[in-house]
TrEMBL record, chain A:
<dbReference type="GO" id="GO:0005886">
    <property type="term" value="C:plasma membrane"/>
</dbReference>
<feature type="compositionally biased region" description="Pro residues">
    <location>
        <begin position="618"/>
        <end position="628"/>
    </location>
</feature>
<keyword id="KW-0564">Palmitate</keyword>
<keyword id="KW-0012">Acyltransferase</keyword>
<feature type="transmembrane region" description="Helical">
    <location>
        <begin position="29"/>
        <end position="55"/>
    </location>
</feature>
<dbReference type="InterPro" id="IPR001594">
    <property type="entry name" value="Palmitoyltrfase_DHHC"/>
</dbReference>
<feature type="compositionally biased region" description="Polar residues">
    <location>
        <begin position="482"/>
        <end position="520"/>
    </location>
</feature>
<feature type="region of interest" description="Disordered">
    <location>
        <begin position="1"/>
        <end position="22"/>
    </location>
</feature>
<feature type="compositionally biased region" description="Gly residues">
    <location>
        <begin position="696"/>
        <end position="708"/>
    </location>
</feature>
TrEMBL record, chain B:
<keyword id="KW-0472">Membrane</keyword>
<dbReference type="InterPro" id="IPR004031">
    <property type="entry name" value="PMP22/EMP/MP20/Claudin"/>
</dbReference>
<dbReference type="GO" id="GO:0016020">
    <property type="term" value="C:membrane"/>
</dbReference>
<dbReference type="Pfam" id="PF13903">
    <property type="entry name" value="Claudin_2"/>
</dbReference>
<feature type="transmembrane region" description="Helical">
    <location>
        <begin position="258"/>
        <end position="281"/>
    </location>
</feature>
<dbReference type="InterPro" id="IPR042356">
    <property type="entry name" value="CLDN1"/>
</dbReference>
<feature type="transmembrane region" description="Helical">
    <location>
        <begin position="185"/>
        <end position="208"/>
    </location>
</feature>
<feature type="transmembrane region" description="Helical">
    <location>
        <begin position="6"/>
        <end position="26"/>
    </location>
</feature>
<feature type="transmembrane region" description="Helical">
    <location>
        <begin position="220"/>
        <end position="238"/>
    </location>
</feature>
């Protein structure tokens, strides 16, 4: 029974502990079982049957002395059995794969001027240090390997040789004590040899006598080895027999080294350090410091602005706050009724334009670009997030009819109408951007949304021209429009594209269909001239890069410029003809709106430092053009938005930005707090940025110039 | 290497547990917990008295004072479930009585010669020498043939209450001695039960190839060791109280027996086995946790 149970227990230990299941050998545990049985059983029987008489007739110190020696023996036995002998951890398979094939069998090192060979261990994949040997039973390399002792079922190495030696010494003394006192008892009870006490004492003496001879011999052998400073392995293999032993330091020093030296360190327990390193939390100071710096720069920029822009930004802030709250139920049914016919007209126009062609062209660069493949491989979770994002885009697309119906209310031309107009802009911009992120239909929808936006701008100008009394804010807006017009007049190629931009939105609006009918044919004719203009755009982009390098802007301005420039080259040139003028038209307005939208945050927010990092953080994510990862990022951002109110404000901020970039992916939220992901994304961003900058795009120069000019005017 | 050391710990703890269980079983089953050394039989007047004590001890009703007095005067040994006395065999009882008759007959025949005074005196002297020689021979021959007669405590007798004055049922029940006696024969059974339960759990764990119960098995062994230690303490306290209540006769000496020592030494063996099991369970789980974390990293 005990053998079977012990065998089973050993099997249990072998199974789960080691990664590779080892074969269990019950025969290995027989010597240690026998040693334990004889040691403990004979000693306990001696204490029970012999010591009572000895304590009465000889001295009461006898059982105390035997108990102390026995406990010392048992303690050293346990230490020799259960202590790590000094196992060297194995090298990992990836670590020394090359060395494993090319490594020579021996390496020679000098120790005290004596050549000592180090052998390559193929199991552990390293050169064994001097005096180190591989134990085939334990299947490990042990430091200062002496021998594998079956009686303790453990290797005797550098760490536990001391305890093994003391175990031998104390065991020899213990056996002599038990035998001697047993003999004394028997001699005093010669007339009562048939009694239980005498019988047990004689049996104990027989066991002690049987074990005394080999144990004493082994103790003497190890005394010689300790005095000479050798190991059993060296003695048996005959190393350093003829020459000088480099590891000996004299008899007394050898003995003190074995008995009194410090405990050698354990090599297998080094995993603890790595484990603690991984658990450390990420640091939060760097983003705070960056946020503070950005906040200071923003404050400096905003203080220089005009008072009128502040009032305008305050109005936008109030509108955004109202948008956060639940919309009133009455306007919804009114908006639904006029929206229906507009949707029908959109469907007919989409069919006439032929949507499948642009979708096919747009998918090609996504699959062919290697960087996107790399990002997809490195971020599989983002793909899943992108898939889950489809449903919110469908929900947001349902808001389009309400946006379409708003221009009709603007025709009234009243002050209340102007308020609704500004609110409508923010509401309508969101669905436009989200629709841009959609599938193949994005081209057509984006065109019509562009048309709608341009239509809204014209009624405002009409109202300005017809109205008698105007507010200061309206006058400032008018002046901005004039500056945009002056910018458009620059350059011959710019004027040609601007004229195209002016014509195509008219085509989008249904009310002007009769007016635009004769001008359709010249647009189709001009499509043939796109290729030479594209080459010109490449040259202009290069000039823009030079300007960016030479220009000295503040950090937030540079951030805006970098954010603006990458999305331009995303659409392929073949499908860009109907969209290119729209993009140019957007770029002219984009910096102005960005500046105006960013200004209101510092004065309105109660806590400038925490809000500014949230406001600034969405800008850098705009740079990555691939849609999959950006969709994933935006999904995580929306999740964060649901948690906090400040996150909602930043969400609206991103929504306000997205309509200008609706043909491109929306700005993704800040990256997740995992510190491990930072280096991966940081490495991917510059690569993507380089890729985007290398692509041709004529708008970079204009954007730079427009941004610079806008800031000069505002100052 | 890691699994080898834990397997060794489990093997050694198993060996220690088996040794302790064997010791405790032997101690509970034998009667050498406490032994009394009585003086040898002196004079013919005591023979009949001791004989009557013996007869009452063997067949009489159960009474603490009766069997205690018998144990005190007939080299008695007492254990948890047995009480034994050391008495000469029946033939020796008969021989002693025969010798007595011979002496009597000799005296009677001596009184039959009143006429010759000188002859009478010489006969008396020779008769005395003859009687002494015969008695000495019988005494020396009878020593090796002492036999041990044992009587077991039944379960009802184990639960019989103890009285403040043994033999006097009206003196009131001694609660301390009563419960000490009950504890000292129940605790070792509890200890053995715990060890058997631990063995069964270990066996099932072997079949399921699981190391989870190792900690529980260690706890069971620790409880078993504590129960055994409590048994020894209760027994020593009970015997001390008994000797205070029933004063030992003159020249009667009491000492602890080897069964008590076996029980006493099985307790640390159980505790050592428990320590090894707990160490193996805790170290093994820690090491496994490290390996898992390292592999995941």
């Amino acid at each position: 029974m005990p053998g079977f149970s012990s065998g089973g227990l050993g099997g249990e230990v072998g199974g789960p502990a080691s990664s590779s299941p080892r074969r269990f050998h019950p025969s290995r545990y027989v010597p240690v079982s026998a040693a334990t049985t004889f040691l403990v059983a004979s000693t306990t029987l001696f204490f029970c049957f012999t010591c009572p008489w000895l304590s009465e007739h000889v001295s009461s110190v006898v059982p105390i002395y035997n108990a102390v020696v026995f406990l010392f023996t048992l303690a050293n036995f346990c230490m020799a059995t259960f202590m790590d002998p000094g196992v060297f951890p194995r090298a990992e398979e990836d670590e020394d794969k090359e060395d494993d094939f090319r490594a020579p069998l021996y390496k020679t090192v000098d120790i005290k001027g004596i050549q000592v060979r180090m052998k390559w261990c193929s199991s552990c994949r390293f050169y064994r240090p001097p005096r180190c040997s591989h134990c085939s039973v334990c299947d490990n390399c042990v430091e200062d390997f002496d021998h594998h002792c079956p009686w303790v079922n453990n290797c005797i190495g550098r760490r536990n040789y001391r305890h093994f030696f003391l175990f031998l010494l104390s065991l020899t003394i213990h056996i002599m004590g038990v035998f001697g006192f047993g003999l004394l008892y028997v001699l005093h009870h010669q007339h009562q040899l048939d009694r239980v006490h005498s019988a047990v004492t004689m049996a104990t003496m027989c066991v002690a006598g049987l074990f005394f001879i080999p144990v004493a011999g082994l103790t003497g052998f190890h005394m010689v080895l300790v005095a000479r400073g050798r190991t059993t392995n060296e003695q048996v293999t005959g190393k350093f027999r003829g020459g000088v032993n480099p590891f000996t330091n004299g008899c007394l020093r050898n003995i003190s080294h074995v008995l009194c030296s410090a405990q050698a360190p354990r090599y297998v327990g080094r995993w603890r350090g790595k484990q603690t390193a991984e658990v450390q939390p990420p640091f939060l100071r760097p983003p705070l410091s960056e946020a503070q710096l950005e906040a200071k720069v923003l404050d400096n920029g905003i203080q220089n602005d005009c008072h009128s822009t502040r009032s305008k930004s305050s109005l936008e802030q109030m509108e955004s706050q109202s948008a956060d709250a639940e919309p009133p139920p009455p306007p919804k049914p009114e908006l639904r009724y006029p929206g229906l016919p507009r949707a029908d007209t959109e469907e007919s126009s989409l069919l006439s334009d032929g949507p499948p062609t642009p979708s096919m062209y747009k998918y090609r660069p996504a699959y062919s670009s290697p960087q996107m493949n790399h990002t997809a491989l490195t971020h599989p979770n983002k793909m899943i997030r992108g898939d889950s994002l489809d449903s919110p885009s469908i929900l947001q697309s349902s808001c389009q009819p309400s946006y379409r119906s708003e221009p009709s209310t603007l025709d009234g031309g009243s002050i209340i109408g102007v308020g609704v107009h500004t609110g409508g802009r923010e509401r309508g911009e969101g669905p436009g951007g989200t629709s841009g992120t959609g599938g193949g239909v994005s081209g057509g929808i984006s065109g019509y949304s562009l048309g709608g936006r341009s239509y809204t701008s014209y009624p405002s100008s009409l109202v300005l021209s017809t109205g008698g009394s105007l507010s200061s804010s309206m006058r400032s807006a008018h002046t901005h429009h004039n500056t945009l017009g002056t910018l458009q007049s620059e350059g011959t190629t710019d004027t040609s594209y601007k004229s195209l931009a002016n014509q195509t939105p008219r085509n989008g609006s249904l009310s002007y269909d009769s007016l635009l009918t004769p001008s359709e044919s010249p647009e189709f004719e001009s499509a043939g001239y796109t290729s030479p203009f594209l080459s010109a755009q490449m040259a202009q982009q290069r000039e823009g890069q030079l300007l960016q390098g030479s220009a000295s802007f503040s950090s937030p301005h540079r951030a805006y410029l970098r954010a603006i420039s990458p999305p331009l080259p995303t659409p392929p040139p073949h499908t860009a003809h109907p969209e290119t003028p729209h993009l140019l038209h957007q770029d002219t307005r984009h910096p102005h709106l960005r500046a105006s939208s960013s200004r209101p945050l510092p004065p309105v927010s109660e806590q400038p430092s925490p809000s500014s990092p949230r406001a600034c953080s969405p800008d850098p994510p705009v740079s990555p053009p691939p849609r999959g990862p950006s969709l994933g990022q935006s999904l995580s951002y929306t999740r964060e938005a649901g948690l906090q109110h400040k996150a909602r404000s930043t969400h609206l901020f991103s929504l306000t930005l997205s309509p200008h970039l609706h043909p491109y992916p929306p700005p993704p939220p800040p990256p997740p707090p995992f510190p491990a992901d930072f280096p991966i994304r940081s490495t991917s961003r510059p690569g993507l940025a380089n890729h985007s900058t290398s692509k041709p795009g004529g708008g970079v120069k204009k954007v730079t110039g427009v941004g610079g000019t806008t800031y000069e005017i505002s100052v | 290497m890691v699994d080898n050391r834990y397997a060794t710990a489990l093997v050694i703890s198993c060996v220690l547990s088996v040794l302790a269980t064997v010791y405790l079983s032997v101690a509970v089953g034998t009667q050498h917990w406490y032994q009394y050394t009585s003086p040898p039989v002196r004079g013919e007047a005591n023979i009949s008295e001791l004989r009557s004590l013996h007869d009452e001890f063997m067949e009489g009703e159960f009474d603490e004072k009766t069997y205690s007095d018998t144990l005190f005067r007939l080299n008695g040994t007492i254990g948890l479930w047995w009480r034994c006395v050391l008495v000469p065999s029946h033939t020796h009882w008969y021989k002693e009585s025969g010798m007595y008759n011979l002496i009597s007959s000799h005296k009677l025949s001596h009184h039959g010669f009143p006429q010759n005074n000188l002859l009478i005196q010489s006969m008396v002297l020779s008769g005395h020498d003859l009687c002494f020689f015969l008695f000495l021979n019988f005494s020396s021959v009878s020593d090796p043939k002492m036999v041990m007669k044992c009587v077991s405590f039944t379960l009802t007798q184990q639960f019989t209450p103890k009285y403040k004055e043994p033999g006097n049922h009206n003196s009131g029940e001694d609660m301390l001695r009563t419960y000490l006696w009950r504890c000292q024969f129940l605790l070792p059974l509890i200890s053995l039960g715990l060890v058997v339960l631990a063995g069964l759990i270990g066996f099932c764990a072997c079949l399921c190839h699981s190391l989870t119960p190792t900690l529980g098995i260690g706890m069971l062994h620790l409880l078993a060791g504590l129960c055994t230690l409590a048994t020894v303490c209760c027994y020593l306290a009970g015997m001390d109280l008994l000797h205070r209540v029933s004063v030992l006769p003159d020249k009667v000496d009491g000492s602890l027996g080897w069964s008590l020592y076996l029980a006493l030494i099985s307790s640390p063996l159980h505790m050592m086995a428990a320590a090894l099991l707990v160490w193996a369970a805790r170290s093994h789980s820690q090491n496994y946790y490290r390996m898992t974390a390292y592999r995941v990293a």
